[in-house]
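Hi U.,

Before I forget, here's the chain from the pilot set. I'm dumping it here mostly so it's searchable later in email.
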Amino acid sequence: MIFKSKLLREEIKHWLLVASLSLWALTATIYAISKSEKMILIGVDDVGTRIITDSKDRLLQSELKNFLKVFFETYYSYDEKNYLTQIGTATELMTNELWERNKDHLLEINEKLQKTPLAQSMEIESIDLIDQGKVEAILMLKIRSRIQEQKVRLKVNLEFKKNERSEKNPWGFQITEVSDAAI
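Structure:
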């Protein structure tokens, strides 16, 4: 008797469809929220490979040193051909605020390199942890132009903070301040 009316049948179908789609949406949402991604850190050293679970793991202790080496290598070693690539990689290790402050200066260096080509390489003489989050490094820069080679010792002061890992910055750190001066 209830299902003899075509209007009533259509209305029941409509509400059954709404209820089933709502149930499906609720189930899919709960499933998506429960499947949050976890980042797993795998350490590789002389002994072998292992999953790192402890923040005091010796591989993590040497990570800051390796992070700083990578930053110095990308920020201070370049030539006119690879400058933008090198600096682009280095700026991925910086905070956005630091990048915005240094952007004009770094692009100005690129323009000067295009007019007067040179190659700059870097060698680390020392890295010292001054305070929590502050590092002082002494670098030896070798600047080669067509005619001459010049050596410059540079004192670099860095500030860093812990950061979440990403594809562009796989390290657990990010540079918040960088300043350098010839010594």
